[in-house]
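Input/output pair, single chain:
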Amino acid sequence: MPLIKTDYSNTENREYTALPTDEYEMVIEDVVENATKNGAETLQLKLRVRKDLDKALPETNGKHHNRIVFMDNWKRKESKDYDWASIQNIFKAVGTDEGKEYNTIDDVRNALIGKPAKVYVKEEENTYNGETRMVNRVAPWNFSETAYPMDPNANEAIEVKEEDLPF
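Output:
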């Protein structure tokens, strides 16, 4: 049996333009600290459009599953800290317990990674160095509780055919 057999019937050219403005069911895939060349620091969330909701949400998730959007929470110049008040919206949307304390960025990261949320993504023009392009913006207050909770113990189903079994 071959490792792979080429089949181009389901391939398509996909443009990676900004997502259309809408609400998407997403999962927080990563939370990292980043900095620009000029030293501005951000706590960046990597959000992925859930691929398990193609049938339930054909016009949003179905058309754009697996697409990634980033959300930045910049450190404030005055306080030299992140805008933790805005992050509260994300904690609430993913269902973290009220009163829970986080001591490190890793604690925050671990509390958010893998959690689903409904996220309003806005498509807007951005001009930088004289070039205007369409980008996505997500604000912390644009997170709300998912309408499609994920089973943390469930794995994606794997189809195994009789002829694939070695016995």
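The helical segments are 61-64, 84-94, 105-112. The CA atoms of residues 96 and 111 lie 7 Å apart.
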